[in-house]
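Worked example 2:
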Amino acid sequence: MLLGRLSGSAVATRYVMAAGIGIFAQTLLMRAPFRHCVHGLVVALAVFCALSEIRWPGHFGPPISGDYLIFVIGFSLPALYERHSRERADRREFLLNETNRRRMEDTLAMNSHLERLSSLGLLTGIFNRRYLDSALVRSCDVAKDHQRWLGILMIDLDYFKSVNDTAGHQYGDLCLEHVAQVLQHSVRAGVDTVARYGGEEFVAILPDADEREAMLIGERIRASDRSGRPGRRRWRVLTVSAGATAIRGETGLQFSAEELIAIADEALYAAKNSGRNRVIYLQPHAQCHLAAVGSG
């Protein structure tokens, strides 16, 4: 617009129209916020008006009248409105996406919480048999794929039927809660997995635990459980028996979760027959087998 005035040309109005088209296109195409577009237009017009009032030496053609300014402003308003509408739509879309994202996160968190609750026993607060079966399969796969040790403990309360028959099932439930707490505090935090196998039997999955480590953890559980009694009522000192086994994944060595549980259960049966309140280890290699290697 200023160049149109300075040119002294009879077609200076075309410069004004070109300026209006330029402002219109710039407002639509550039990604500046709406308020910046408004500020830029106001500042540009203010600078032009200030320069047009200056009396330059010499002849610079006819001054640009106010109707040209009104034309440029009127021509720019639709572009500003479009910029404002697009910005509102972008903001609305962003808020909608943010709301959907938060709802998705809440839904995933709720599903994860519900899944965890479905894997926990209501009485003991530790993992149940459903979770144990899947966790044991995963642990066996890791041990076989990476040639790592895997230890298993099968723990059983001694004389639990007598506890229920003599002291009542409510006290028996306290005993189960007590043993579950002892197990959680006796195993390696963040490494081992403790679950209720069924009735008064519990299982501890011990990744990277060889026979010596499995026996140490079993003895720690046995000693910790003997040192405490659930509730204030003293009926008898609780004791537990445990069967332990451990195996290291090797090339060609085939074993399953069911086989390891069966070996640990056999070791537990031996501990029961030996007088209870003890931990017995059973070597699993005699029960597991080597797969045929080679072809032909």
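The longest strand covers residues 149-157. Residues 66-118 form the longest helix (53 residues).
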